[in-house]
Amino acid sequence: MLRAALSSGGGRLPALLSRHRHLSGSSSIAALFSDPSPPADPSAAIQSAGVDLSHPDTVPALLLHPDLAGNYAAASRFFSWAASQPPAAAALNSRSFNSMLQLAAANGDADRFWSLVSDMRAKGYGISKAAFRAASESFRAKDMARDADLLQEAYAAHARNAAAAEVCKILRSPDKDEASKLAMLGGSGIEVTDELVALVVEKVGQFPPQAMVFFRWVEQSAGAGIGWAKVYNAMARVLGREDCIEEFREVLRKMRGKGLQMERDVYVTVIDRFLKRKMVEDAVDLFRFMTGRPENLSVEDFMFLLKKVVVTGDLDLKLVTRLVRCFHNAGNEVKASAFDAVLKSLRSVGRLGESGRVLMAMEEGGFAPGLVDHEKAFISMCDAGNLEEARDYLASVEKSGYKFGPKIWSFLVQKYSLGENVDMAVTCFYEMLERSGNENMGSALEVLVSGLYKKKGAKEAFKVTKNLVSEKAVVPWQSTYKYLIHKLTRQGHLKEAFEVLDLMKSNGFPPFIDPFIAQISKSGTVDDALCLLNATALKGLPSRRVYGRLFQALFKEGRHEIAQQLLAQSPASVQNHADVRDLFDRMKQDGPVAAALADG
Questions:
Q1: How many CB atoms lie within 10 A of CB 257?
Q2: In 3D, which of 568, 541, 562 has the Cα closest to residue 550?
Q3: 76-117 pLDDT tens trace
Q4: pTM of the model
Q5: What is the per-residue burial (b if ≥16 Cβ within 10 Å, else e) of 370-383?
Q6: Which of 517, 455, 453 is nearest to 491 (CA)?
Q7: Residue 456 buriedness (CB in 10 A; 0-12 / 13-18 / 19+)
Q8: First vs last Cα of the chain: how many Å apart?
Q9: What is the DSSP track for 184-220?
Q10: Three-state SS for 534?
Q11: Which of 101, 315, 388, 527 has an alpha carbon within 20 to 30 A of 167's alpha carbon?
């Protein structure tokens, strides 16, 4: 009987076959496909034999019937032809493929066997237990140990995939609550393995609620052989996100309690996710967890996170301290390059004004800054316009034992001078003198004088300069004197300008008379001219060169009367000088002259 000949699948030939008394369907198909070149379209012959291949039981039964099972070549050709037909013409299901698998293994056709396995995977079919056992026995009997081993692996992989699919189906049940899903998983009889965890996490990892149910079941059901490190790393990868942060923290606590490490790729994935979501505190906590095994972290990891902390969201100095302390306590040295990198990051987001506070936060965490680091922080604060805070920072750092050079205080004076609060620039200048002495103050004083002139006028700039030179022995640059004389004379403050000229001479600089001559020639009096001449006299002797320039400038401006009055009050040595007499004679004859007198 046909049914008695079937070895698996519960298959049977349709009742149609029993109507053919002279030729059974299986034998006619075997005969049809025994020829290496069967008809181009065997359908007509098969239909005439009364075989309905569209029935799901037909092909499995035919393949395992002795007529085809004993004629592998015919069975193989028949299956290939059937596989090429549309489903309505030939129904090939999982049992059909498993039947053909058994025949291929029984005949030692490894190529056809694995080709079938590949096709089955593509269609979502698995290897049945009966096919697995039969094929394994065939491979072993034919000394095909490698194929037997590969089959064992393939069957196990299918079993794992099937188990994972079943778990996912339960987890995705839309009408079940968590308790119901846990009960269903517990009653499924599925064994928890490392492979199962990996497969399920890959499928439900983007759905944390489902993943949480799965992980709770794993923790309840896993046996002693489970690799907890892999399980918890998988959990951390999935739950390390904003909407599961409490669950993630719980995972870290459990890992710490079990002495488990987080894999580096998991750390990188999660920390990147945290930073993209501006979860800076959680990123620092994760870094602190990783420092439990310092070998898992590098200086680059620390630097990367430190720079992110100071630029992401609202600046939290406590997090800066916590991060630096974690890295330092793990046995690492926090180098000055770390603060340099922080400054660049602060500059990139317009936070240079926070440089001092960030440096102090790093110091609290274990960084040992040097004077250069404090100077960089101070200059950055000044560049950001936080002058008051920068000034307080200087005082605080110096109080702790550091001593800044004049360059740093000069920088603060210059910044104040260029800003609106020039009075504070003056105050800082005096503070600078108290701390650093009066040497090398020229640069700061020049900017201070310029700032005072712009904000309060030339007389105020003169007043401060005079006090600094007379009482504090500060030596301005020559350019500062010239600048101040120029501004005073232009505003008509000749008396103050003459005092500056005296200060200039006291510091060993040659007198700067050009602005005086220009101003006196246009609107000055004889007394003004005499003051200039007295200021430029050398050892009490008047300078005929200065006299000559004054007379010439007065003539050029048409002020002949003032020139005559000045000449009348000049010493005889000047009145009788040939060049002077010649100048006045030419003035009487030709009017003003333009030629310059040579110094007599």
A1: 8
A2: 562
A3: 888 888 888 887 778 888 899 899 999 999 999 999 999 998
A4: 0.67
A5: eeebbbbbbbbbbe
A6: 453
A7: middle
A8: 149
A9: HHHTS-PPP-HHHHHHHHHHHTT-HHHHHHHHHHHHH
A10: helix
A11: 101
Q: What tokens does 454 get?
A: 């712009």
Of 255, 259, 218, nearest to 236 by C-alpha is: 255
Tokens of 332: 């690492």
Strand partners, 541: 538
Among 70, 456, 194, smallest CA distance to 465 is for 456
Q: What are phi and psi of 70, to 5 degrees?
A: -90, 0
How many alpha carbons lie under 13 Å from residue 521 in its C-beta half-sphere? 20
* Tokens of residue 551, six digits: 């007379």
User: Which of the 8 DSSP states describes residue 293?
Assistant: S
Sorted by sequence, the CB contacts under 8 Å of residue 151 that are 6+ apart come out as 127, 132, 135, 136, 139
Query: Token pair for residue 425?
Result: 């620039």
Provide the residue type at 141 as one letter: A
Q: What is the 3-state secondary structure (H, E, C) of 391-437?
A: HHHHHHHHHCCCCCCHHHHHHHHHHHHHCCCHHHHHHHHHHHHHHHC
Number of residues written out for the chain: 600
Q: How far is 546 from 514, CA to CA, in rounded Å? A: 10
Contact present, 221 and 211 (Cβ < 8 Å) = no
Rounded CA-CA distance 435/433 in Å is 6
Pick from 20, 80, 81: nearest CA to 48 = 20
> What would the two tokens of residue 379 be?
């200059």
Closest CA to 504 of 489, 490, 483, 525: 483
DSSP secondary structure code for residue 538 in this structure: B
Residue owning tokens 């650093």: 436
Place of tokens 């965890």: 197
CA nearest neighbour of 449 among 465, 433, 470: 465
Q: What number of other Cβ atoms are within 10 A of residue 112's Cβ?
A: 19
- CA nearest neighbour of 105 among 38, 151, 160: 151
Give 538's strand partners: 541
Collapsing DSSP to helix, strand or coil, 515 comes out as helix
Per residue in 224-254, pLDDT tens?
668 888 888 988 998 999 988 998 999 999 9
Q: What span, in angstroms and rounded, lies between the C-alpha atoms of 302 and 245?
A: 22
Q: Give tens-digit pLDDT for 37-76.
A: 767 778 877 877 778 888 888 888 888 888 888 888 888 8
